Amino acid sequence: MEWATLAATLGGGLIAIAGTVLADRLRTRQEHRRGLRERRREVYTEFIAAAGAAHTELRRLAQSGAGAAGLEEASRAALTDARVYEVRERLFLDASARIAGTGQTMFERLRALRRTVAAGAGISTSAFHDVYHPYLDAVWAYREAVRSELEGPALAPSDFGWSAWDGRERCPHCAEGGAGGAGALPGGRVPEGRTPEGRLSEGRAPLPGRAGRDDVP
Question: What is the DSSP letter of 95?
């Protein structure tokens, strides 16, 4: 009887210890998953913000122009100063395979945009738009992938009144097929309420169902 009691006591103790160990492991795994999710959310946001800062500077360079040598150096600095390369490495360390892939595509198209700007393509040239719109498409593909992984509601171009993500339908240059832009008036003049690049002038309300800044990804 005493042996049976002792065995039962030892068995109960082992079960209790095993339960505690298992609970600790589960808690550790949950904390690890939660920490990874938080790191991913942070680096996903950092990456698209860094790319956005570089994109803005590249547009500025394409609009202002400079000597060929100056554009090469300035366009490279646009990516470096925005920390695109640094954040991309962090993305590869923490991102899921899908996000890393869409992020790399976005990065490659941003670099193609940089090379085009460095070669002297102005913001209203076909050479610029041939690489600019694929970049916008890659930006939205990245956003969609991130939202899907983080279990956010899916987005579609129609939510913004668009038919595609690449922005060509909203681009005066691509719609018209020339530097003058869609709806340009004789002599290259621009319709009231639009800038030469097709953006809405300051103080004008955006069209219903569209973002106010059509050219920004």
Answer: S
Which residue is listed with tokens 């992984």? 149
Q: Are 118 and 71 in contact, with CB atoms under 8 Å apart?
A: yes
* Residue with token string 């219903």: 208
Angstrom distance (rounded) from CA 47 to CA 52: 8
This prediction has a pTM of 0.68
Both tokens of residue 134?
A: 């694929």
Cα dist from 86 to 91, 99, 102, 151, whole Å: 9, 16, 17, 26
State the Cα–Cα distance between residues 74 and 71, nearest whole angstrom. Answer: 5
3-state secondary structure of 80: helix
Q: How far apart are CA 207 and CA 198, in angstroms?
A: 13
88, with CB counted inside 10 A (0-12, 13-18, 19+), is buried
Classify burial at 89, counting beta carbons within 10 Å of its beta carbon; exposed 0-12, middle 13-18, buried 19 or more.
Answer: exposed
- Under a CB-based contact definition with an 8 Å cutoff, are residues 99 and 149 in contact? yes
Condensed to tens digits (0 to 9), the pLDDT of residues 69-122 reads 689 999 999 999 999 999 999 999 999 999 999 999 999 999 999 999 999 999
